[in-house]
Design a protein that fits this description.
By secondary structure, the protein is an alpha+beta fold. The chain folds into two domains: 88 residues, Phosphorylase Kinase, domain 1; 155 residues, D-amino Acid Aminotransferase, Chain A, domain 1 (2-Layer Sandwich). 30% of the residues lie in helices and 24% in strands. The chain contains seven helices and 16 strands. The strands form four sheets. Strands 8, 9, 12, 13, 14, 15 and 16 form a seven-stranded antiparallel β-sheet that branches.
Length: 293
């Protein structure tokens, strides 16, 4: 299978092209989101993608959206057979990797729930002893479980780095009521995913979510509990002090940390074996989630 990294349809102009997803118009109230096989890390899109990655992401998100019933989401149609023209004429681009959704006014924050200290949170903790303004006890080890879930929002950057902020910054921007609702819902989605995955031998370390407004109501949008937006660890191999064995993009980050690439210049292509192993890991977590539901 060849990786789908670019989509070009002469009949229609895309609304937006992100790191992984492209948006296309449907009508005044709806749009189509397609998950490509592009892969990004450290805020760079790599020249080669991961074959089948977009299908995996779309499949996983759709499963979670259907099973999370305590908050509304943006999905209207996930069956390619019901897609309108011209999309139904291009199964090679849209089948199994697209959904039609309601348009929302996106809330421009990444809403992150952390149950373990890892990644950017670990880096910030080592430097300041806190994450997003939340002080943590001293002496934590990499990948250690936190005493309680913490909500660590970040600015959402289409280009460049997301920046961790405190919930107080969100409150000043969108109001205390909505900021608290986002904190509650982010933690609740994380708890639902964490508890669901335990039986499959998977630790959900953290996850990031996006939300949007429809008629002043906040709903869940974008993707949910995928290996692009979450860290999934093999519970049987988990230990603190190291980056745990994972089924997510951390595998690519760990590889890149041991290369000469400076993370600022254009990234080199990922080696064939890294592409293959990443596809394998993404496929494994998809199968585990499918088996759960």
């Amino acid at each position: 299978m060849k990786a789908l990294v670019n989509i070009d349809i002469p009949e229609i102009k895309k609304i937006y092209s992100g790191k992984v997803r492209d948006l296309y118009p449907v009508d005044d109230e709806h749009m189509l989101i397609v998950s490509t096989d592009r892969v990004s890390a450290f805020d760079h899109i790599f020249p080669n993608g991961i074959p089948g990655k977009g299908i995996i992401l779309n499949t996983i998100s759709t499963i979670w959206f259907k099973n999370i019933n305590f908050i509304k989401n943006h999905i209207v149609e996930d069956n390619f057979s019901n897609f309108p023209a011209p999309y139904c004429n291009y199964p090679e681009f849209f089948k199994d990797r697209s959904v039609i959704v309601r348009k929302t006014k996106r809330i421009d924050y990444e809403c992150v729930a952390r149950g373990y200290i890892i990644g950017g949170g670990w880096k910030e903790y080592r430097e300041t002893g806190s994450v997003s303004g939340i002080s943590l006890k001293p002496g934590l080890k990499m990948a250690e479980k936190l005493p309680e879930i913490i909500f660590t929002p970040a600015t959402k950057a289409d280009v460049g780095h997301d920046i961790n902020i405190s919930i107080d910054v969100m409150k000043k921007d969108i109001g205390e009521k909505d900021a608290e609702f986002l904190r509650l819902m982010t933690s609740k989605v994380y708890e639902f995913g964490r508890d669901s995955l335990l039986g499959a031998g998977i630790i959900l370390a953290d996850t990031k979510l996006e939300f949007g407004y429809i008629n002043n109501e906040i709903i869940l949008i974008d993707e949910v509990l995928t290996p692009d937006s979450s860290r999934f660890w093999d519970s049987s191999l988990y230990k603190t002090g190291v980056s745990p064995v994972s089924y997510d993009k951390q595998f690519i980050r760990d590889y890149l940390d041991n290369t000469p690439w400076d993370k600022n210049s254009p990234p080199p292509p990922l080696p064939v074996e890294i592409v293959s192993k990443t596809a394998e890991k993404y496929g494994e977590i998809m199968n585990k989630i499918q088996e759960m539901f």
